[in-house]
Amino acid sequence: MSAPAPLLRRATVEGLGTAALVAVVIGSGIQATELTRDVGTRLLANSLATVFGLGVLIALLGGVSGAHFNPAVTLADWFTGRRTSEAHTLRDVAAYVPAQVAGAIAGAVLADAMFGKPLVHFSTHDRFSSQLWLGEVVATAGLVWLIFGLARAGRAHLAPLLVASYIGAAYWFTSSTSFANPAVTIGRAFTDTFAGIAPTSVLPFLAAQLLGAAAGLGLVAVCFGRPAAAGEDEVTVPHGVQQPAAPVRSTEESALAS
Amino acid sequence: MSAPAPLLRRATVEGLGTAALVAVVIGSGIQATELTRDVGTRLLANSLATVFGLGVLIALLGGVSGAHFNPAVTLADWFTGRRTSEAHTLRDVAAYVPAQVAGAIAGAVLADAMFGKPLVHFSTHDRFSSQLWLGEVVATAGLVWLIFGLARAGRAHLAPLLVASYIGAAYWFTSSTSFANPAVTIGRAFTDTFAGIAPTSVLPFLAAQLLGAAAGLGLVAVCFGRPAAAGEDEVTVPHGVQQPAAPVRSTEESALAS
Amino acid sequence: MSAPAPLLRRATVEGLGTAALVAVVIGSGIQATELTRDVGTRLLANSLATVFGLGVLIALLGGVSGAHFNPAVTLADWFTGRRTSEAHTLRDVAAYVPAQVAGAIAGAVLADAMFGKPLVHFSTHDRFSSQLWLGEVVATAGLVWLIFGLARAGRAHLAPLLVASYIGAAYWFTSSTSFANPAVTIGRAFTDTFAGIAPTSVLPFLAAQLLGAAAGLGLVAVCFGRPAAAGEDEVTVPHGVQQPAAPVRSTEESALAS
Amino acid sequence: MSAPAPLLRRATVEGLGTAALVAVVIGSGIQATELTRDVGTRLLANSLATVFGLGVLIALLGGVSGAHFNPAVTLADWFTGRRTSEAHTLRDVAAYVPAQVAGAIAGAVLADAMFGKPLVHFSTHDRFSSQLWLGEVVATAGLVWLIFGLARAGRAHLAPLLVASYIGAAYWFTSSTSFANPAVTIGRAFTDTFAGIAPTSVLPFLAAQLLGAAAGLGLVAVCFGRPAAAGEDEVTVPHGVQQPAAPVRSTEESALAS
Lengths: 258, 258, 258, 258
Known about the structure:
- 4 copies of one chain form a homotetramer.
- Chain A is an all-alpha fold.
- The first copy, chain A, has one domain (about 5-225): Glycerol uptake facilitator protein (Up-down Bundle).
- Helices cover about 65% and strands about 0% of the residues of chain A.
- The first copy, chain A, contains 9 helices and no strands.
- In chain A, helix 1 (about 5-35) packs parallel to helix 4 (about 90-115), helix 3 (about 70-80) runs antiparallel to helix 4 (about 90-115) and helix 5 packs antiparallel against helix 6.
- Chain A is globular, with a radius of gyration of 18 Å.
- The two termini of chain A are about 15 Å apart.
- At the A-B interface, helix 2, helix 5, helix 6 and helix 8 of A face helix 1, helix 2 and helix 4 of B.
C-alpha cells in the first residue's frame, strides 16, 4: 500500500470527480428530455446513466481521494474517524468540500455547454415540500449506512458497484429522486433543465441531507455494534505484512477508496 | 471468522433490512406510477429499483443476520439445518419472522409517508386467482432453489448479485410479479398503491409461497444430491484453519450471508 | 475438484435449466405484452428478464452439468473435445439433447399455465426470411465464439455474467432477436405468445443455428490459434495439485461450468 | 504469462472485435427503430445493447490484442508507452488502425444485411455542430481518462465492466451520444439508419476525438501524477516471479487486455 497522495491532488480529484458526476446527472437528464415525452422513460435513462457513471468514477478515483464527491460523506468520514486517526483532520474537510462544490458547479456548466443551453441559468424547478425533505433524509441515511457499513463489514472493495446500485434504487424509491449530496444539490441549481432545483429549494435539501447522514451513522451503529479498536476491521491486510506508520488513512476512508 | 452477532442484533437487522426492501418496492412503484401511464415502463422501473436495492441490502447486511428478509427463507433454513447444527433453533425463527413482518409494515408506512400518501391505507388491488398462486409457487421455488443451491455449489458469495438478478427476472416471468416473500406480502397490504395487494388476497399468497419453498428444497435435492456431511461444502475455509467450536452457523446460513 | 455428477443427474439438470430458461423467455414476453403496447418496451423487458434469469441459471447449475441448456453448445462441446478426452462421448450428447428439448417444451407449458393461456397452442408467428436466418447464424456464431473463446482465454469463470450479457445484446442487434438455441426454438413453437415461433419456421432456424455454431468454432480458431495440448489452458489449477485421473471433464466443459 | 500473439493475429482480432462492436451499435439501433417510435426508448435499447456487447468483447478478446477497437486508444497507447517499451512501435499502430477501420465498415455492412437494408447506403444524418463536437471531446477524454487511469490505479482487470459502463453513461450525458471512436465513426457513415452519421460530418468528429484523447491523457497525469518507473504499476505480478525478457507489453496495453 503506497502513501496517500498529497492533499492538493486529492482535493483536485474530488473536484474533477464531482464535476464529472454532475455532468452525467444533468447531461443525461437533458438528453432524455429531448428524446421522449414520457417522464418515466426520462427518469429510467437519467438513473441508469448515473448508475453507470458513478460506479466508474468511484472505481477510477477511489484509490486517490476516497471518491467521496459528497460533503455529507466527507463530514461523516471526519466525524467517524476524528478520534482514532491523525489522517482525519479538519484540514482535509476544508480542502475537500470547496473542491466538491466548485466541481459540481463546473459540471453543471459543462453539461449545459454540451447541449447548447445557457451556461448558467438558475433552475425554476421548485422542490419545496416536507415529503421531499423526508425523501432526502431517507436517501442520505441510506447512502451513509451503506458506505460506512461496508467498511465495518470488510466489504469496502464492493463500494463502486454497491454505491452506484444504491443510487439507482434511490432515484426511484425516494420522493425526491435522491439528491443525497450537498455539492451536487448546489450544482443542480445552476441549470434550468430536467435535473435542476430552484435556488430557493436548496437550503432545506442541505439540512435534510445532513440530518440523514447523522441518521445513517446511527444505523451503522445499530447494525454493526461499537467499532472495533483501530485497525481491527482492516481484514484485507495479509498476515505478516507490517502496517505503515502514521499517518494512515482510517478504515472508513479506505473503504471509500474501494 | 468472528462469532455471530447476538440474536437481538440479528433480528433487528432483519427488521431494518426488510423495512428497507419494502420501502424500495413500494416507493419505486409509487414514483413510477406518478411519472408514466405506460404500465410496462412502470414495472421496468419498479423491477430495476428492486434489483439494485435488494443486492445492496444483501451485501451490506448478509454478514450480520444472513440477510433473509423473508420468512420462507428463514423457515427453509431452519428446516434444512435442523439436524446438523445447534445454531438452527426455533428460537432464531421465532425472533426473525416477527422482526421481518414488523419491518415490512414499517417499510410500507415509510414509503407512503415519503410520497404524501395516507400512512396506512389497505390495498384494494385484488390478486386472487389460481394462476397468480401458481406464479407464487414458481417464484418462491426458484428463489429457494437458488439460495440453497448456491450454498451447495460453494458459490454463496455470489448471493447478493444472483438473488437480486433472480428477482429482476421473476418480476417479469411469473404472472404474480413474484412477491415470493410472506413478510413483504403482508407489508404490501398496507398501501393502496402500485405494489399493493388487497388483504383478502394475502392468505393464499402465503400458502403458495410456503408450498413453493418446499418445492424449491426438492429441486435442490434433485440437482445437488444428498447433502455432504457437515462442513464438507464449506470450501472457503483455508486449509489449516481451525474450525470454531459450536455454535457455528450452518452452511445455508453462511450462504445467505454471502 | 470433486468427480462429475452421474450422467442421469447431469441430464436432469440440463432439462430443468432449459425449462426454467424457456419459462423466463416466454413468461416475460407474455407479461410485457399484457402491460404495454410499445413493442420496444416489451423487448426491453423481455431481454432484461432473460439476462437476469440466464446468468442466474448458469451460475447455479454450471458446476453440475456445464449449463449448456442448448444442443448447439453441447454438439460444439463434443466436437471440440472428441479427440482429447474420454469424457466427451456421444453418450453424453444423446442424454443432454433430449433432456434439453423436453425441458424447453415443459418450460413453455409452465409459462402458459402461469398466465392462463392454453397449455399448448402452436405459435402463428411466422419467422421465415433469409435475413432472419442470417440473424440466427450471427447470433449462434457469437455465442459459440464467446463460450469456447472464454475457455481458451482462461476466463471461463466469467461465463455466467458474459453469456447472459451477450444474449442481452443479441436480442437487439440480430434481426431474429437471437434464438440461438435449437431446444429453445422448439419450445417456443408451443406457445402462441410474444416469444413464439410458428412450427413451419423452426427447421430453417435450427439449420442456421448449426451453421452459426460451426462458424463460431472457426472464429475461436482464428482468434486463439490452435488449441494447446490437453490441460494446458486449465490455468486455474494451482501448481502442485495433482490432476484427477480420467475421466476428466474437458476444458470446454469446465468452461461452461463457470 | 504467455508471450503476446503474433501481430497478424492481434490485428485480425482488432478487426473482428471492431466489426462486432459496430454490428451491435448499428443493429440494435435498427431493431429499436423498427419496434418503437419513442426515441428515448430507442436510445435506451441502443445503449444497453452496446453496454452488454462491448463488455463481452473486451473480456473475450482483451487478452489477445488488448481490445482497443479504437484508433484513439491505440494512438494514446503508443504515445504513452513510446519511450518505455520496445513493444510500442509504430508498426503496431500501422497494423491496428487499418484493421479497426476495415472491421468497422464490415460491421456496418453486416448489420444492414441482417435487417434487409442496402448493404452500403451512406447516412444522411447530419451531426455537424459545435456542441456535438464538444460532446465528442468530452466523451473521448472520459474514455481515455478511464482506460489509462485504471492502468495507473492497478485496476485494469476491471476494464471490461467499467469501459462498457462508461459508454452506457456517455450515450446519455454527451450531446453527441458518444461516438468516441474514429473507426466506429467511419463505419457508422456506411449505414443510413438510427446510428448513422453523414460522411460530411465525420471529419470534425475525428478531430474532436483526437483532441479529447489528448485531454484524457492530461486528466490521467493530473489525477495520478507522473508515471512510476517501468513495471512499478504492474501490481498483479506475484513476488518472486521472473519478468519475461523484452519484448513485453506495456502497462497500458496490459491494462486494456484486462
